[in-house]
Amino acid sequence: EHVIAGRFGEVVQLQIATGNIVRRWDGFAGKITSLRLHPAENLLVAGGGVEGVGGEVAVIDLNTGDKKLH
Fold this sequence. Notes:
Blueprint (H helix, E strand, L loop, with lengths): L1 E14 L5 E18 L4 E8 L3 E8 L5 E3 L1
Antiparallel strand pairs: 1-2, 2-3, 3-4, 4-5
C-alpha cells in the first residue's frame, strides 16, 4: 500500500510499510497545498505555488507517471 504526499516543490508516493519513496514528481514552484485523487481514472491533481507570485496545477497519470502542468 502507498500514500501520496505533497512537499515543497514535489509530490511523492511513499510505501507505507517502509516509508521509502517509490515515485517522485518534482519541478513544482513552491509548496504543494492540495492533492485530489480521481480513483476511477487513476489521476492525481496537485496544486500549489508561491504566495503572492502565482500558482499552478498539475495532473499526474498514476498509470504512466506522466505529469502535465496547467
